[in-house]
Design a protein that fits this description.
- 42% of the residues lie in helices and 22% in strands.
- With 125 residues, the protein is an alpha+beta fold.
- The protein has one domain.
- The longest helix is centred in the middle third of the chain and has 17 residues.
- The chain is globular.
Amino acid sequence: MELTTENELLTFVCVALNIQPHELQDGIIIPRDMLLSSEKYEQLKPSIVRLKKIFSSKCMTSMHASAECNQKWPCLNLVRQVLKRMGYDIQPERRCAGRDQDGKKLFERFFKVNKIEKKFTVVEE
């Protein structure tokens, strides 16, 4: 990828995750509700046009014109697919947040961004 392409992707991810560029690192935690909100998707919609110039929408279903209608969480899918192309993986996690009045466990749900380890295979002749 070119430097301008990397900058464009980094800017998109930083806006999507509400972080600064230096904060995008292995193990960062993102609140789940932020990526499921329709307001965040509306905020990111103008960026889809720029992303289509970088990636083919054939491979990335989150950039299809019908994504908003056909997908349950289009914002999450868009961010996940862009992060994957940048070498990051996003994993759902949950943490116990206590119990309610009836004793039922409450959970805090979030996503953890991890750097994908590149696997190289050595071919011996």
